[in-house]
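Quick one:
INPUT:
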């Protein structure tokens, strides 16, 4: 018998692909979302008793198609509408034929470049939409993230994000924004938005904003897959290379980032023999290719930072001064509070925790849990335990991720039951990853 939680996991993994395919054949984002949601509702009702179908993804897409046809027929009035429903039925059958195989849609073909999800990303990243709407809508449609999770990624209230998503979908509908991969002339102007989308999808997978687990491997895999697709479309674009390198170097640590019971393991405490040497080698190769192009950008610099981390066989051998220099270049390109927070962490390793804390306290990130977590670590290293406990508690109140909350709880217990000791070096990343 399949558990409801397993269906929820399938929803996470297949939502984006299902919506992307249905948008292509229905021509409407809202209709595609409604149809896929209807299909998952039916799955929740049927699968616990009937069991998992041979191809859950194919079952969802086929069922969503049928629900879309049924809905159109219910809403149809007059011969013309009924004829349109019949025509749509034929178009759906033909349009899905290339993706669905067998009685239960045993497999789904995924093209190398002519990819449905890539089409949907570029639709969502159309210049008619503002940047925040572009990223938020793609996270919703491609990643299957909830409105609350997207709001967390943007550090905005959930109602604000809900309104943003409604407006973005309305703009696509009313402006008749095409569902296609742009021409070569259009690609570059939309690339920055697309890369931002992919990286936010990866980040939500790498450090999930909610739930019991730290990592959502499905989103990490999807972001890397989309990163490779962008590389295939634009092989000479250095920032596309940089983003893929960054994601590979971060994902290489996945096996070491959690304990057997799912607890968070900081970079300084990770068993580096568990790091994926193949992903590290590929990431380093891409970083070297970026250096040859000599067109530095934010993703390339972040990849270079993580390449330095991956060079260190032990935490003590990390070249913090080189990382600090790279952060200096990064903050010149992207002078954001989050980048400044990352730099402050590294500054603490080079010049000491007092210097790092002084830099952190200049930032206005009071609603960001990692701001409080970093402050807590630096206060702990300075022996200011009462302040550190208060900062850990502030961080705990601002995260919905179970693994992160457990980690922060352990830090609080350690400070309230034992004498302080020196903290291990961090990663130069507030996630300690």
């Amino acid at each position: 018998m399949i558990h409801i939680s397993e269906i929820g996991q399938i929803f996470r993994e297949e939502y984006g692909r299902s919506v992307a395919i249905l948008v292509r054949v229905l021509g409407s984002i809202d209709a595609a979302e409604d149809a896929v949601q209807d299909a998952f509702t039916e799955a929740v009702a049927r699968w616990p008793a009937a069991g998992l179908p041979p191809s859950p993804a194919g079952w969802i897409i086929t069922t969503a198609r049928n629900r879309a046809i049924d809905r159109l027929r219910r809403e149809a009035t007059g011969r013309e509408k009924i004829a349109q429903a019949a025509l749509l039925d034929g178009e759906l059958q033909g349009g899905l034929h290339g993706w669905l195989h067998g009685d239960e849609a045993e497999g789904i073909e995924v093209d190398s470049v002519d990819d449905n999800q890539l089409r949907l990303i570029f639709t969502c990243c159309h210049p008619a939409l503002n940047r925040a709407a572009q990223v938020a809508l793609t996270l919703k449609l491609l990643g299957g993230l909830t409105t609350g999770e997207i709001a967390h990624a943007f550090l905005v209230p959930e109602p604000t994000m809900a309104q943003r998503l409604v407006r973005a979908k309305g703009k696509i509908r009313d402006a008749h924004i095409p569902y296609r991969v742009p021409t070569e002339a259009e690609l570059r102007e939309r690339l920055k938005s697309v890369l931002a989308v992919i990286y936010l999808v990866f980040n939500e997978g790498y450090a999930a904003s909610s739930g019991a687990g730290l990592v959502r491997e499905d989103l990490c895999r999807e972001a890397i897959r989309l990163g490779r697709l962008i590389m295939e479309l634009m092989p000479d674009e250095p920032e596309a290379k940089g983003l893929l390198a960054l994601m590979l170097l971060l994902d290489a640590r996945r096996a070491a980032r959690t304990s057997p019971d799912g607890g968070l393991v900081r970079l300084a405490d990770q068993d580096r023999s568990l790091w994926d040497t193949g992903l590290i080698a590929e990431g380093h190769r891409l970083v070297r290719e970026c250096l040859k192009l000599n067109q530095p950008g934010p993703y390339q610099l972040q990849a270079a930072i993580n390449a330095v981390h991956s060079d260190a066989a032990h935490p003590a051998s990390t070249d913090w001064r080189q990382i600090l220099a790279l952060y200096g270049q990064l903050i010149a390109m992207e002078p954001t509070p989050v980048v400044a927070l990352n730099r402050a962490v590294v500054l603490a390793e080079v010049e000491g925790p007092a210097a790092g804390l002084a830099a952190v306290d200049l930032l206005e990130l009071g609603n960001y849990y990692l701001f409080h977590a970093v402050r807590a670590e630096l206060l702990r290293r300075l022996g200011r335990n009462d302040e550190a406990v208060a900062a850990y508690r502030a961080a705990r109140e601002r995260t919905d991720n179970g693994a992160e909350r457990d980690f922060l709880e352990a830090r609080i217990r350690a400070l309230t039951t034992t004498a302080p000791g020196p903290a291990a070096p961090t990663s130069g990343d507030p996630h300690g990853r």
